## 1
Amino acid sequence: MNRYGSYKPSYIDWVGEIPSHWEIVQPKYKLNRVTRPIDDDDEVVTCFRDGVVTLRKNRREDGFTNSVKEHGYQQIHPGDLVVHEMDGFAGAIGISDSKGKSTPVYTVVEPDDRTDLKYVAYLLREMSQTGKIESLARSIRERTTDFRWNMWSVINFPFPPIEEQKMISDYLDKKTSQIDSLVDKIQKKIDLLKEQRTSLINHYVTKGLNPNVEMKYSGVKWVGEIPSHWEVKRISTLYSQTSVRGCGEEQNLSVFRDHGVVRRDDYENKNVLSDDLSNYKLVNAGDLVLNKMKTWMGSLGVSEYRGIVSPAYYVLKPNFKFFSGYLHHLLRSKIYIDQYGSVSKGVRPGQWDLSYDEFKSLKVLLPPVDEQRNIYNRLTRELDFNTQLSNLESKKIETLKEYRQSLISSVVTGKTLVIEDLL
């Protein structure tokens, strides 16, 4: 690692020592904040948490609240530094690539000859990563993350000479682009593993393990052919709904689309529990549990635990003996999840209600019990291996992201010397 020749104290807690020739300056003396009027044809520019500042339509249109009246809207130009006052703590800071308009909760700084705005953007995003922005905001106003110009423009920042700022930002652009490209390649591997996982489940639970078995039409249009010795039964013949109330002393269960039925205490992201547990339903091991508002997303599964769930869930007990592990995979396969969505009714955006009558009338595929167990065992082995591969790739991404942030931190605070040979 290249180091500068000499250092001096910066007296900035999140920076530490800086190269001796760097300045410590308040941004208000280096940056030119602007508030421009908008044009009639300006489209909305959004500052995203990954540091991209672009026309909203370039990323996505959903998930935003649109103002009926655009009071205080301001114009943004390409090359402007944009800081989201409410979301800056999470990294919503960057250089705009578009002309457009934004809400007044954005701080806009125009480029000039005094400062390289890309360097400032890297510096501010480093502040967001270290938690400095959040601590600054809350030290001024409790329980808020406002990061306004009049707050951050008067605190000390480290500023190299302008030529060095440009060298630093160009170097970081190059290195972060290389890292991001590697991350994208690894993510594509993870996505492929997910597709393979989905394909494995769909194939085994609908076609079985023997590729040479005689097939027949299942009678279910969205399933197609199945092994000729398999049965087709309605869910209502396998399960009956139960509404037995549990007691507050039972462990609380929930259903996640990625995991099925889980114990809430096993997950940090716990749902808020009601103070009144009198209507909570009892779940026994082997019961099928569905979140009726999110079944179309895959929020269902066979429980391995005894516990209680909220009234928002259907709880179904098995009517006779079968291998529930196979049914768990079958009912959570994409082919079935897609069907839940097709028979659910919209309640409000993001929520669809699956009626019990619709669910129980669906048909399921039943191999002989021994074959159900064999399918489950094969799936367990292959899915475990798939998960191991996916976890290894995910760890590579974590390592690259940690290196990326460490690199940015060391360069923008002067711990690493950037020379032209590195560009």
Note: The radius of gyration is 28 Å.
## 2
Amino acid sequence: DLLKTCQVWEQLLSIAPRDILALKLHHTMAFYTGRSQVLLSVIRGVWASWDRSVPGYSVVQGMYAYALEECGNYDEAERTGREATMANPEDLWAIHAVSHVLDMQGRYEEGVKWLDYSAEDWSDRNPFKAHLWWHAAIFHLSLDDVDKAISIHDELLRSINTPSYVDVSNQSSLLKRVEIRGINVGERWQLLADHARTRTKDHILTFRDVHFCLAMAAAGQLDEARDFIKSMEEFSDVNHNWTAKVTKSTLIPLCKGIVAYEANEYAAACDILWPLRNDLAPVGGSHTQRDLFRQILEDAASKCERTNISRHLLSERILQRPNDVNYRRLYEALQ
């Protein structure tokens, strides 16, 4: 029960605010439950017990920077994140926090430069480096450099895969964004779908489950994806913890919308995803990661000529990303 676990960590941190392991574990699980305000509240609650004289201070700064970014405090997030990376240039999470600011503010060229790290640069880093390369690929996609985004997938993201660990979330999220741009990614889905089929009884993280479902559906394994949704229904019927409740309320309809989209049932996908679009935070992940599901809705609306939905979503995009000329061009084409 992730929610109850987070509450225990919060109780511990109220007693021992410098317990950096409890803080990091809480930060990770609050992230995977999509509770941005909780991320920020807990870091602020321990902040007065930390300063530069305490070992690990820059790690706390990196977590604080990410929490600030997810709550929309971009200037403070960037300042704090850059301070953390200056203190410890090896801190992937602090680098990650600044990357999110650059993405949310549409500063894509800066993002490319910020994440210019090769496989050799990070040869000794843990698999989280794949997520930073994912961000680099997203920056390149936003600059219309699709070839570079695909090369990052092929040369960096897939290299993270091992017999026991396949990076489904980052890879499927990137591949789908490329496909939405009309690019055929070939057989790249197959490995992800094959691995996802081995994990359909886990139901540990809703964030993982939605990407497993996406991988199977995008690979054309629609029956397997539907069976996976049935497994989610069974799980949510017999369990009563936070994950089961979110699976029932949010994950299952989201996955049904994704499967409808991959089955070319675009009107049905719109009908499912449109009312759900602003309530996806419990699935977990960041604003940037969950934006994929809005992109799927946008593409479905375009393909079934739901012009009213397309116009509404693009209007939001223009306000959020005023520097992105692509969204303005698409919006003007609808007038």
Note: The chain is about 70% helix and 0% strand.
## 3
Amino acid sequence: MNPLLLHADLWDDYALIDSGNGEKLERFGPYFFSRPEPQAFWSKKLSPKVWKNVSGKFLTSSSADNDDVTGKWSLDADLPNKWELKFDHIKFFATPTPFRHLGFFPDQSPHWLWAANKIKHLNQLAINNAPPKILNLFGYSGLASLHAAYNGASVTHVDASKKAINFAFENRNLSSLQHLPIKFITDDAIKFVQREVRRNNKYDGVILDPPKYGRGPNGEKWELFKDLPSLLKLIPQVLSTNPIFIILNSYAIRSSYLSLHHALKEVMQNFPGQVYSGELSIKEKQSNPRQISTAIFARWEGQ
């Protein structure tokens, strides 16, 4: 069980420029931003002048050793509220959010590409003469859903936040993908899956990117370490006879990829396949680049 270390590549509209001293300098389209990065123990390579020439800086209001760092943005007055980016035929908006990210997670692109290959392979087999059905729980701004649908899947996109669902709609419309089979649903993830079990609805693949904490549309509480085991036990009940993949991702960096690996392996023990796990990362765009681990994951691949 050797861990995989995947890093975001094939990007034109995103780059990690430099990192160090607890910060990272990134480019999102034409704009540069500096954000906290507690894992960057090393020194910065680029000059202070480069680091100061940014369109936005996230100012923390809690200690740097806390993975729930809070704070606020200091943004240039001429920075637009949102701007267009692109990855592999998918267009979407970037915008600074109160949660210190910019409305999407570029490090997840290896998952999108891997899922797309599985979807296209199943379509080539044309076993059911129907597109693979993918369930994307905690779908947020929709990039994983859009990418999967663009590559031939029928997607059910679920998120508890109406704001996130509206963001996903905007990204879909920007990409002119209104014709693709994507259902956008505002719901609590566990309650939705429980209903799908009762309806006997089945999926060929599942994507899960649960937050550490969250709220459902009716005030339901989500706590990763408490609720994820319950959700995972439901997943096999909504899988088709021969599912192709499950992607489980987590930004709760105080846990380990091993915890996701063994949890996913346990719930998928009755399906022929293999679990792989490791970390997602971003890599600097310069000589002798450093890598920053951003998330842990486990992926199940059907035979």
Note: The longest helix spans residues 109-125.
## 4
Amino acid sequence: PGTRGVLGWSARLSPTDAYREGLRRVLAAPWVWAGAWLALLLLTLPAALVLRDMLASHLGASLVAEQAAAGVHWEWWQEFRAQASGLGTTFVPAILGGAAVAKNLSDLADNAPLETVVAGLVGAWLLAWSFLAGGILDRYARRRPLGAAGFFGACGTYAGRLLRLGALALAAYYVMFAHVHRWLFDEGLYAAWTRDLTVERQAFALRALLYAVFFALVTLVNLVVDYARVRLVVEDRRSAVFALAAGARFVRRHAAGALALYGWNTLGFLLVVAAYVAVAPGAGATGWTLWITVLVGQAYVLLRLGVKLGFYASQVAYFQGALAHADYVAAPLPEWPESPAVAAVRGRPPPAPARTP
């Protein structure tokens, strides 16, 4: 049974139970997890090969190449960065070990602009994820295998709707990072409050406070978009605008539970990051140590995807618990490609049979 808190959330699943249920649903669908990792690998592998060719071309068969392979050759690295362009500009010292995670989080907090090539890869991944998200959410909502036809049928059914929702979410995030962030830090409160300060720790405390305010607002946007996505798929909604409004209503009515569940998922993310920072190797040598570095990095990527899928699955479970129906899904099981019988039921003429010679 659920619990009723100060802010009025009530559901058959508590946030803790929803988090556990989400983990169970992710583990019960290993092919979804593996497929998401494979999609990310196929998207980023060409860029990795291009960067490898750039490094090999610059190093050549030289003594510097042997020294760089054995560890870090700082002088060569600076020389490479000075002449690099495009994807090569991303090859910076901060990519080593756990520093990459810290750099990503720092860039996000400070709204650092992405390199053009990286922005293109991120945009391509978001498009691919918008296609896959419908099938992922549908699979977690039904809690049973869909088969390839059912999974990709759900992907195709919801892809357009999720893309429209993603465009609305992108507009909201643009306002947050382009305007609210600038008002808080660059041209607004922080600049005004620290203009006459002479104590560094006070300036740091003010900046930390503004970070907390900013990310609280980002969390609110995340919650609304997340539950809009869940309601769009689970309730088979067609309007992205009304799904967004429905997501906002759900967050308002179940504020404490939704925040608590978000906190559990965030804690899982932080634990994964902390584990990677603790075990991530630095610049290794060739041979088996290089493969260990690759495997540790891919394990981290896999766990990060598992955390993302856990967000989806636990939010679906919590939403279904609020409806008092653990397996509620409004839409029938989609199929792709549709059979002639399905097309006829939906009022469309079935495809003409293929002629045989």
Note: DSSP finds 13 helices and no strands in the chain.
